[in-house]
Here is the input.
Amino acid sequence: MNRQVTEAEVQSQIVRLATLREAIAQAIVGQETVVEQLLIGLLAGGHCLLEGVPGLGKTLLVRSLGRALDLEFRRIQFTPDLMPSDILGTEILEEDHGTGRRHFKFQPGPVFTNLLLADELNRTPPKTQAALLEAMQEHTISYAGVTRPLPEPFFVLATQNPLEQAGTYPLPEAQLDRFLLHVRVEYPTESEERAILLHTTGVPGAPVPQVMSGASVLELQALAREVHVGDDVLDWINRLVRASRPGTDAPPEVRQWVRWGAGPRAGQSLVLAAKARALLHGRFAATRDDVRALAAPVMRHRLLLTFVAEAEQKGADDVVAALLDGVPFPGA
Here is the structure.
């Protein structure tokens, strides 16, 4: 955005975001943190990987988001026999009945959409997983020597089950790095689970209303990039990411638990996510609280841990917690 953004425009967009959250809440009980992180990914223009056991509403959440946004929505159920052409599309031979001439015509695959649900992405082989790499990074598809742009906005929400590992193909680090956020979907609280039982076993409620257009999403994404990030916050993000690498002046926990730390894309993602969270909360400046809230979702899938960490039952979130405690905020 080249012009100065007025306060009235900011407040108008914030109201739209509140309306979007209310629309999603009509179908989803609880999971406020998960919903917030999905909206942060949408505002930041990044993709999200949702991880949780079956039955927690991951697919329903993504479908509800698709209905609330006036965007084209498609779902791909990833299976071991899925081929790249099943995602990207393929060329078909057509015949002109008038002239009898034959020609190849490209038939777009389901990736040509605005909101793509990649359900159980880790159930398909690496060859098919890699078919999404260019789409996620460049928002284009190359096929038969021709590069085709994808519709904008383009947003991938992938799901995976952390329990069932038999017959699955763990996502390679290069693909994981393309996800802005790794969102953990946890069990609901007792009151939330009771509400789920009540609402899902009776008469179906009203469908999720459409409250936002694709043009509005693009406006919000541009506005999110205008959110101010102070030098102290930027310096802290830079230090956090660099301290995640065991070869640097890292906290002792990092040197013990981490084989490979986060790369520069983690810093970029944390800045964009912090900006998006600030806008979502009605602010036009990112704070250290935004960074703290998003450090784990941004970095947990970008850290490769050691056997020592596995033996001590330490995970990526433990490393992020050590980083937040061991890398002081500038001037604090």
